[in-house]
Amino acid sequence: MEMMSQSGNKLRPLIKLHPKDTLEGYERFLSEYVELKPIIIRNKISPLESLQIADEVYGMTSIMLIEAYVLGKKVVSIQPGLKVMDPMVLSRLGYIQKIIESDSSEKAKTFARTDSPDQDFNFSFKEQAFLSFVNSLLAQQELNF
């Protein structure tokens, strides 16, 4: 949020709370950025609906970042103080930007990566293979009854 407030862009954060989180845990933090007019989402819409609304998606290493990337969204992995191998496969392979911020590092001034990665990310949904897999699971479950 600090980077958003300093960017000079007209940005409005949409914050999807984890189902285990409560708004009370974020109120003090959010009160420092009232000018951004953040939108807080609890469980009223699904994670996929949240991704469809967003232009850019920021997180640490969640599956939502991977889903956002597959949906063609701009994605950034925020990993404060990272001292081990990057746990986020997309940033580790250079597909998305990674922000590592600590007291000694310079704050990132830019947001989501707009250029193409060094390597292509090719994905094709193999419908027949997926349906065969689902059918094998269903057949296996029927045998257990």
Explain how this protein is built.
The chain has 145 residues and is of the alpha/beta class. The chain is 32% helix and 12% strand. Strands 3-4-5 form a 3-stranded parallel beta sheet. Helix 2 links the parallel strand 1 and strand 2. The longest helix has 18 residues. The protein is globular and about 55 Å long. It starts with a helix and ends with a helix.
What is this entry, summarized?
Helices cover 32% and strands 12% of the residues. It is α/β, with parallel strands linked by helices.
Shape summary: globular
Pick out the low-confidence regions. Answer: 103-114
Q: How many structural domains? A: 1
Q: Number of DSSP helices?
A: 6
Mean pLDDT: 77
* Strand ordering within the main sheet: 3-4-5
Topology order in helix (H) and strand (E) letters: HEHEHEHEHEH
> How does the helix and strand content classify structurally?
alpha/beta
Gap from first CA to last CA = 52 Å
**Percent of residues in helical segments?**
25-40%
**What kind of sheet is the major sheet?**
3 strands, parallel
Secondary-structure blueprint:
Layout: H1 2-6, E1 14-16, H2 27-31, E2 39-41, H3 47-53, E3 56-59, H4 63-70, E4 74-78, H5 89-92, E5 97-99, H6 127-144
Parallel strand pairs: 1-2, 3-4, 4-5
Short descriptors:
two-stranded parallel ribbon, alpha/beta, 145 residues, globular, 5 strands
